[in-house]
Amino acid sequence: MSCGDPHETDCSEVLDHLYEFLDREMPDGECTKFEVHFEECSPCLEKYGLEQAVKKLVKRCCGSDDVPVDLRSKVMGRIELIRSGHLVPEQDVAAPSATPQEQ
User: Fold this and answer.
1) CA-CA distances (angstroms) from residue 35 to 42, 48, 52, 75, 102?
2) pTM over 0.85
3) How far apart (Å, rounded) are the C-alpha atoms in residues 39 and 84?
4) What is the pLDDT at residue 7?
5) Nearest residue to 91 via CA among 101, 77, 78, 73
6) Which domain of life, per UniProt (predicted)?
7) What pLDDT, on a 0 to 100 scale, did the predictor assign at position 5?
8) Would residue 4 count as lying in a domain?
9) Quick check: is 63 in a domain?
């Protein structure tokens, strides 16, 4: 997705880090770069608006649900493994690995 015009911050970078921007998990300088990009690029602004709306809808519909403690612990454990480099995000961590008999 791109408007076809050159930008200081490439559309692919903006879209790759869109959720970090939405969740305010990036430094202020990076946020400013994204805000400037959205002012210049209507396709990225549209994608941002759509993702923001979905996030608000999910929060409204599911925001009051309590997360089971064991699920939270598992998710936080996986995040720590990814951050430490022991697990790559692309791995399917939910699927059990196949045993030699299954292969």
Assistant:
1) 12, 10, 14, 30, 50
2) no
3) 36
4) 84
5) 78
6) Bacteria
7) 77
8) no
9) yes
How many domains are contained in the chain? 1
pLDDT at 47: 94
- Give start and end residues of each alpha helix (H) in the chain: 11-16, 18-22, 28-40, 42-62, 69-84
Please report whether residue 49 resides in a domain.
yes
Sign of the CA dihedral running 68, 71, 77, 78: negative
Using alpha carbons only, how large is the chain's radius of gyration in Å?
18
Residue 86 tokens, joined: 């022991």
Residue 53 tokens, joined: 């709306």
Q: Which domain holds residue 65?
A: 11-84
Residues sharing a CB contact under 8 Å with residue 82, sequence separation 6 or more, in sequence order: 88, 89
Weakly modelled stretches of the chain, pLDDT under 50: 93, 95-100, 102-103
Within a 10 A sphere around the Cβ of 8, how many other Cβ atoms? 8
In a domain, 68, yes or no: yes
